[in-house]
């Protein structure tokens, strides 16, 4: 009897569970419970289309209820407490915390669902999709793990929701009112939270423009502990820029101290897509302040990493453009010390070229001489070759003569290389042309150069430049190439032969 009753009881429970799960296919705000799966809608709620993505099962499921029928939904969930197919969490609690990400008018603060379904306090970061997340909530992983080992002052895991309605409106704060009337009612983290939203940032910027020291100080005190997050936020960075433009020496010193501590904040801010603008603005404001020396020192400690970073290198260039050469001397020394490493680095060579164009004073000649002394090594490196070409392009006679002299004996070899051929052409277009021509005239590899995929361009440049400048070596080069006429009729040599024929006709 017991055995025969079990299948019926099991079927009955399965039928009940199935019916319950079908009934449970309902949408709570942007949280959807469907077929035992918890899903969340990451897009703005619309009437017709709703695209859902799986809610990460991180132990904190969240939602905000909307619309009428709340009591009905609560009773539906509480009507059956043992549905084993649903994910099991310790508690499930939906309190609206006064936050409506899509502008819902309902405020469901304090509403609680059945606690046995595993819902805990809603965490706004998990509630919305990437495109809808408030920039504030994404402060935790600014560098995808790069910054995790640094212990930072960060916002609470569940910050108070701050909107134009809800808790703030009840406390008398209204962002649409540009006066400072309700501003002093803000407490705790509400200032930094607002500052990292589009509307809040604009509101605070307007207050800063009033230039009321009391208001400015209140705003500053509300953001200084989170200055790193503010500087790297899409909207917060604009407030940061407005604050430092006031040039309050005490506030600027506090900011510099925060950034130049041993945690490397200035480096991570400099390589951040938004933070780099904040640092550049800070350098501009501190241009004539003694504090800029502290910033330069901190940048020197991360000189290599900034120079090889596509974003960070612009901070170094900002220093070179804005700060005087005496205060930049530490950067100059670092560049000289790491010159060869940077010159042979894929991204470092680009930064070094920009650095060379900006460096001033006696350190400039010191850096150029260092490159000239190692020109043979650099000329045969794909990245270093690029640096040598840039230095030649500066049109400094002593640099050109030194480079062209040092490369004697290597011109034929370089002419057969992709990067090297460009360097030889640059030498032919400079005042050091004769060094190249003498080597070609004495070489028994001239035919090889003429028939090479890269070398033929070098010889064409040699013929054009010698003819244009009226060099007496032009005729000598033509005569030597004429001895290879038959061999030049095939392959890349035909390019050289065609140019020779055209020049003979002109002569």
From TrEMBL:
Segments annotated as Pumilio repeats: 222-257, 439-480
Any one GO BP annotation for this protein: regulation of translation
InterPro entries linked to this entry: ARM-like, ARM-type_fold, PUM-HD, Pumilio_RNA-bd_rpt
UniProt cross-references to SUPFAM superfamilies, sorted A to Z: ARM repeat (SSF48371)
One GO molecular-function entry: RNA binding
Cell compartments where the protein resides: Cytoplasm
PUM-HD domain span: 164-504
Main location: cytoplasm
Tree of life domain: Eukaryota
Entry GO CC: cytoplasm
Protein name, as recorded: Pumilio homolog 12
Lineage: Eukaryota, Viridiplantae, Streptophyta, Embryophyta, Tracheophyta
Gene from which the chain derives: LOC18602702
């Amino acid at each position: 009897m017991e055995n025969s009753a079990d299948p019926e009881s099991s079927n009955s429970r399965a039928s009940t569970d199935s019916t319950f799960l079908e009934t449970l296919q309902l949408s709570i705000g942007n949280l959807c419970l469907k077929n035992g799966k918890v899903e969340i809608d990451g897009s703005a709620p619309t009437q017709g289309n709703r695209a859902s993505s799986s809610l990460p099962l991180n132990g904190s499921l969240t939602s905000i209820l909307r619309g009428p029928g709340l009591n009905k939904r609560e009773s539906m969930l509480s009507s059956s407490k043992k549905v084993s197919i649903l994910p099991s969490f310790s508690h499930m609690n939906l309190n609206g915390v006064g936050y409506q990400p899509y502008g819902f008018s309902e405020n469901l603060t304090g509403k609680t669902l059945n606690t046995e379904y595993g819902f805990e306090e809603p965490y706004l970061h998990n509630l919305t999709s990437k495109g809808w997340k408030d920039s504030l909530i994404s402060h935790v992983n600014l560098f995808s793990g790069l910054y995790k080992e640094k212990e930072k002052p960060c916002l609470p895991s569940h910050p108070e929701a701050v909107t134009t309605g809800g808790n703030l409106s009840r406390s008398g704060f209204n962002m649409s009112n540009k006066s400072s009337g309700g501003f002093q009612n803000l407490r705790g983290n509400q200032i930094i939270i607002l500052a990292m939203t589009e509307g809040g940032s604009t509101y605070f910027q307007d207050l800063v423009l009033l230039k009321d020291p009391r208001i400015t100080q209140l705003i500053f005190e509300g953001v200084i502990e989170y200055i790193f997050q503010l500087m790297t936020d899409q909207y917060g960075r604009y407030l940061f820029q407005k604050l430092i433009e006031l040039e309050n020496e005490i506030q600027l010193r506090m900011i510099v101290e925060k950034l130049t501590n041993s945690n490397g904040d200035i480096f991570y801010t400099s390589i951040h897509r938004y933070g780099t603008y904040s640092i550049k603005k800070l350098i501009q404001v501190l241009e004539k302040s003694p504090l800029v020396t502290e910033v330069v020192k901190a940048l020197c400690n991360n000189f290599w990493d900034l120079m090889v970073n596509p974003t960070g290198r612009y901070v170094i260039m900002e220093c070179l453009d804005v700060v005087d050469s005496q205060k930049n001397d530490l950067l100059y020394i670092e560049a000289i010390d790491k010159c060869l490493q940077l010159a042979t680095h894929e991204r470092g060579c680009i930064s070094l070229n920009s650095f060379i164009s900006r460096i001033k004073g006696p350190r400039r000649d010191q850096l150029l001489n260092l490159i000239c002394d190692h020109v043979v090594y650099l000329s045969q490196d794909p990245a270093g070759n690029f640096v040598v070409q840039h230095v030649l392009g500066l049109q400094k006679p002593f640099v050109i003569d030194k480079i062209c002299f040092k490369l004697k004996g290597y011109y034929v070899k370089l002419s057969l290389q992709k990067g090297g051929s460009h360097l030889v052409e640059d030498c032919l277009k400079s005042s050091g042309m004769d060094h190249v021509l003498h080597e070609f005239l004495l070489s028994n590899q001239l035919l090889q150069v003429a028939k090479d995929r890269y070398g033929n361009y070098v010889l064409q440049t040699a013929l054009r430049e010698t003819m244009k400048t009226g060099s007496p070596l032009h005729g000598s080069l033509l005569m030597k190439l004429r001895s290879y006429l038959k061999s030049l009729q095939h392959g890349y040599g035909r390019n050289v032969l065609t140019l020779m024929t055209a020049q003979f006709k002109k002569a």
